[in-house]
From TrEMBL:
The lineage of its organism: Bacteria, Bacillati, Actinomycetota, Actinomycetes, Kitasatosporales. It comes from Streptomyces aurantiogriseus. GO terms for molecular function: metallopeptidase activity. One of its GO terms (biological process) is proteolysis. Residues 227-458 form the Metalloprotease TldD/E C-terminal domain. PANTHER family: CONSERVED PROTEIN, TLDD PROTEIN. This is Peptidase.
Length: 464
């Protein structure tokens, strides 16, 4: 067996040379990861990994239209490269015409670093973070609490080449930190998480101090029944809800009358006011600190994404502008079907337009309400209204007269993020946040806290 080809751009070029299809897109993903894990105030594991995945997309023209075939494999050797290309071509020949077929993208300037070596992470990314984490362990131990969690950093260098001449590259760093503090008897638990590009802007000592305060709040327990409560949703919870909303914002599905964004009687709700607050929900591949791929990068077609759009430049897009629905997700194909502008998905999400107030300031102006930590196990109940259900986790706190007076039981909730935006009475300061539920798939988000006067806690949950 031959050794793997060392240079990813050469693999892309060779696969394109081998192609006999009418069109070809080759994507090489070079991924490196480094991680730390800890439990009970002590490191447990650490590791570094390297992987390469090669995706070949072949397009074949026929009398009835153009078909596409996609094959992805990891750790492809030089001897395995031609069989991979042939497998993609065979998949295309065996498929029917692709509904989303469009000419492959052309006329995008080549990346100047296309032939450079891939970027890599290593354990060195934790050089400053790890000693501070050790200090946090010592303080937690002295304070009678236990810290659990993990830190993960990955760097993916993606090389894309096409038979139409595109030569693009994107390096995507992605780091997550999740820290959980528990009382020794495990009856009290608090969570905090952060998203980072390089672990230079996260402070485990500050997170531990935050969690110590929350565990202190939980020393007093208050049992509350299900019902509707004024609720402060922190940025992480807002991110989890609005990311799901974005994933559900298909232009085609809306035009076909299947979603919350469908207009009764036909068409979409684009142009409709969703909230009286001057909020803008947007994505921008060049957002500072949340940078993402500036071109379409997809490995398979489905919904409102198309392999034929690979390489299409992405620009800043407002999904909701000043409270008004302004765009829905579309590929070139679904834009043609619906008459909506072309608006592919972008790998970050920002909600801004709120007041310059911190969550602590919003708590201080609350007469009586609930303060959440985070949401989890979020599932869709009704796509027509985007009704979601899920659970609260790791701390729900009762606020009275501007102060947190204790921890209450957890709840199951039933809410639609679209309805929540319409009912929210206050949005705070936008800040980078880590969505807890979706952190394995989506990490680049910036959100404000939201005040909702009647958040629906549909039943009591026994979870911690």
């Amino acid at each position: 067996m031959s050794a793997p080809t060392n240079k990813p751009h050469e693999v892309v070029e060779r696969a394109l040379e081998l192609s006999r299809a009418d069109g070809c897109v080759v994507i090489a993903d070079e991924q490196s990861t480094a991680n730390l894990r800890w439990a009970g105030n002590a490191l447990t594991t650490n590791g570094v990994t390297r992987t390469r995945t090669l995706t070949v997309i072949a397009t074949v023209d026929g009398k009835e239209g153009t078909a596409s075939g996609v094959v992805s494999r990891a750790a492809v050797t030089a001897d395995e490269l031609e069989p991979l290309v042939r497998a993609a071509e065979a998949a295309a020949r065996g498929a029917g015409p692709a509904e989303d077929a469009r000419p492959l993208v052309t006329d995008v300037p080549a990346a100047p670093d296309f032939t450079d070596a891939p970027a890599e992470t290593s354990s060195a990314v934790f050089a400053d973070f790890a000693p501070t984490l050790g200090e946090a362990f010592a303080r937690a131990r002295a304070g009678g609490r236990e810290l659990y969690g993990f830190a993960n950093h990955e760097l993916v260098s993606t090389y894309m080449g096409t038979s139409t001449g595109l030569r693009l590259r994107h390096d995507q760093p992605n780091g997550t930190l999740e820290l959980n503090a528990k009382s020794p008897d495990r009856t009290r638990s608090a969570w905090a998480g952060r998203s980072t590009r390089d672990f230079k802007d996260v402070d485990p000592a500050a997170l531990d101090a935050e969690l110590a305060v929350r565990l202190g709040w939980a020393e007093r327990r208050v049992e509350l029944p299900a019902g509707r409560y004024e609720t402060l949703l922190p940025p992480t919870a807002v991110a989890d809800l609005l990311i799901y909303q974005m994933w559900s914002a298909s232009g085609r599905d809306a035009a076909e009358g299947r979603t919350v964004f469908s207009q009764p009687g036909g068409g979409t709700r684009v142009g409709e006011k969703l909230t009286d607050l001057p909020l803008t929900l947007r994505s921008d591949p060049n957002e500072p600190g949340l940078e993402s791929a500036p071109f379409v990068l997809v490995h398979s077609s489905g919904g409102d994404q198309s392999v034929f759009d690979n390489g299409l430049p992405l620009t800043a897009t407002d999904w909701v502008r000043q409270g008004e629905l302004s765009n829905l997700l579309t590929s070139r194909h679904s834009a043609d079907l619906t008459g909506l502008p072309v608006a592919p998905g972008i790998d970050n999400l920002i909600l801004d337009g709120g007041e310059d107030r911190s969550l602590e300031e919003m708590v201080a102006s609350t007469t009586r309400g609930l303060l959440l930590t985070c949401l989890w196990y979020i599932r869709e109940v009704d796509p027509a209204t985007l009704l979601l259900t899920g659970l609260t986790r790791d701390g729900v706190y009762l606020v009275e007269n501007g102060e947190v007076v204790g921890e209450v039981n957890n709840f199951r909730f039933n809410e639609s993020p679209v309805d929540l935006l319409g009912r929210a009475t206050e949005a705070g300061r936008t800040e980078k946040t880590l969505p807890r539920e979706w952190s394995d798939w989506f990490t680049r988000a910036a959100m404000p806290a939201l005040r909702v006067p009647d958040f629906n806690m549909s039943s009591v949950s026994q979870g911690v």
